[in-house]
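A protein record in our archive is deliberately plain, so that people and models can read it alike. The tokens are whole numbers drawn from a learned vocabulary of local backbone shapes. For reference, a complete record is included directly beneath this paragraph.
>
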Amino acid sequence: MVQQKLTNYLRTFRKRSHLSQDEVAFLLGGGSGCKVSRYERFTRVPNLQTAMAFEVVYGIPIKELFAGIFQKVEGQTLRRARLLASRLTKNDPSRLRVIRLKILERFIPNQETMGLHE
């Protein structure tokens, strides 16, 4: 069973860095630490630029800082990839089918795609 991750680990990494919310807000280009507090309490999701700034500030990849969000997006994407692989196997007689399935194999576990493009 997959362990459920927290939405984000921003507070954890801020505490490890010994920075205040106001200091992090300044580094992110904001005014006060109110937004940082909302990000840490999961009441606000930062835009991509802000998420990347968090990565720069803490030196931690976005997918680790926002592990819960990443886990959710990964699961949704894998479900859609499985569905697409199934559709390609049934409905795509073209030569490109093999190429498309190989691309999907990069992130769908092997046992699920074995034999799909034979």
The helical segments are 10-17, 21-28, 34-40, 48-58, 62-65, 67-91, 96-105, 110-113. The domain at 10-65 is CATH 1.10.260.40 (434 Repressor (Amino-terminal Domain)). Residues 82 and 108 are 7 Å apart (CA to CA). The radius of gyration is 20 Å.
